[in-house]
From TrEMBL:
Region span, Disordered: 1-20, 300-337
Positions with biased composition (Basic residues): 322-337
Species whose genome carries this gene: Amycolatopsis taiwanensis
The protein, known as: Uncharacterized protein
Amino acid sequence: MTFGDSRSPAGRGPRSVPKPKRLAHLRLDPRGYPIIAVIGQAPGDIDFGALSERRKLALATFDLCAVCALPFGEELRWQVSVDEAAATAKTLVSSEAPVHEVCALYAAQVCPFVSSPYARHGDEIRRGLKRPEVTFLTGFRQTARVFGRRSGLQTSERVLHFETTDVEQRLRLSSSAEAIDAYQRALQTEVEVTIDEAEREIATRLTELTTEESEDSGSVMAGAAWFVGGAFCPGVGKVQGMQRFAEDPMYTALARRVLLEPGFAKKFEETDDLYTRAAVKWLNSRDHLPKILASWRNTALNRARHGRPSPGKSGGGIDPRKSKRKLQGAARRKNRR
Ligand SMILES: [Zn+2]
């Protein structure tokens, strides 16, 4: 998708709009647009219209905003829609990961094409031939479920879906003036997102290029998310881009050990893979896991206790006697592209 295309309707340029403080760590594309957490980040390959399923898995696992990669804390989880029926329902199931309010309003503000759903809802809108007349933003209290399924037609790819529930706020923006006002209000009342060191490390790894190859970190972060419980997301094995993790038994075997052996989870912190280490340290240092991850893990734990295989076809197959070093070496290698 092209930005700055003369056919594109005016969003305000990224340099003319003050940025929320919480976006300060995002890298910028050559035109100055912050590169949001849910899209691939490789230089020369920035496509604001293409969600990365691997990144969505990381966002779901660590429970992060799809724009800034920071936690929600006490803030609501916002979804943007141009469809009134969807926007006013009590529960929304979307292939978009939720975001902070200020992040949603900023993205809509700077350029309607930077973020969902503008970039993806219909060719006419995308090409700038037609603007949605009204944009609906809905603030939900919780993400109730995340799961993989087809995005629509039987032939379509399977993608991750987010079900958000417990609506607490709604915004209806029917003009750019209203959008500007709403954004100004959100900006003025923006609270600082307080995070600990482990959360900072996750946000950094997710929004910076890989340290060794300067590539997009989405794949290595999805692998890391898999180990700490992303493996147990319902339907994840068939989601676009996840075959590598689903088909290699090593990934789910390690995820099961992290789940079932607290001692292993602790030792796994010493892995020399930066991404896995960040994820495992994050996991081990949580007082409470985010609801979604906790539910995935609980289901897998119950299955393991009742002797049923975990979801996906790669529940076992690893010789437990294999040394930790060997597993970790494998994790490191396989986690690369
Ligand atoms: Zn955010």
